[in-house]
Amino acid sequence: MPIFEKIGGFENVSVGLQWAIFIVACLIVVVGAFSICVAIWLAIKYISFNRTMNSKNISGSDAARQILDRHGLSHIKVSVVGSLLFGNSYSHYFKKVRIRRLTNKKPSITSLAIGAEKSALAIMDKEGDKDMRTRIILTPLMYFGPFALIPILVVGVLIDIILFNFTGVVTIIAASLGILLYVISFVLSLMVLKTEVKAQKKACEILKNDNMATDAEISKMKELFKLYNIQYVNDLILEFLQLLLKILEIAAKIQQNSSSKS
């Protein structure tokens, strides 16, 4: 008897599937622990740089306004928000750069970095950057994918129960469709990261060329951006592993149901 069956919950499940569930669960623990460490280090750097005043003594929103105006984007609004929903962002559809109140509270290095980076996204949009255009077009699908999995799966199960006496076929099809949308969303999230990295590089170039930040300040901004990017990738990997674990658990339940009926 495989050791996992002794733990419970894996009766009539193949050894290969048991090992797959065990390995993915271990990976989630490892990646989760690493993610916590990065999040703590990011928080330390964020707070430290947010307490360090920038050489121009300007807030993130003021910096964003200056950069946008210099690049012919006076029509793009700059708003300071307290919402966790939007956060620091650029919206093509609303023509707006949003900066969190906490970030914009002081004329700090952190505030200057965020204001410049989000403005750089607007500049990339204006310049017709290929990756930025793709991001804008597919953004709705990126946000729809993660939320669609559970509703689609529930609908599939209900149809399976009501119309097909729960053969499992419709459930599998619905789960496959939901997973496909999630995978598409995952790929699009990588594209978002690509555009963010481009914007970070562009922001540093703008700040240097326009003499809005010193080399030392730009070096600290790059360090902050790097930690943001690492945390973003960690979150994506963790979400993917959690999805994979759910898929394996569903496969295990289907296998158990099949064995009990036979």
Strands, helices and their partners?
Blueprint: H1 3-7, H2 15-50, H3 60-70, E1 77-81, E2 89-91, E3 96-100, H4 101-104, H5 109-127, H6 130-164, H7 169-209, H8 215-261
Parallel strand pairs: 1-3
Antiparallel strand pairs: 2-3
Which terms summarize this structure?
mainly alpha; 3-stranded mixed sheet; 262 residues
- Largest beta sheet: what is the strand line-up? 1-3-2
How would a crystallographer describe the biggest sheet? 3 strands, mixed
The shape, in one word, is elongated
Unreliable sequence segments: none
Q: How much is the radius of gyration in Å?
A: 23 Å
Beta-strand percentage range: under 5%
* Category by helix and strand content: mainly alpha
Number of helices, where a helix is a run of at least 4 consecutive DSSP H or I residues: 8
Question: Distance N terminus to C terminus?
Answer: 20 Å
What sequence of helices (H) and strands (E) makes up the elements?
Answer: HHHEEEHHHHH
Helix content: over 70%
Q: Provide mean pLDDT, rounded.
A: 85
Describe this structure as you would to a colleague.
This protein has 262 residues and is mainly alpha-helical. It has a 3-stranded mixed sheet. Strand 2 and strand 3 form a beta hairpin. The mean pLDDT is 85.
Offer a quick outline of the entry.
With 262 residues, this protein is mainly alpha-helical. The protein contains 8 helices and 3 strands. It has one domain.
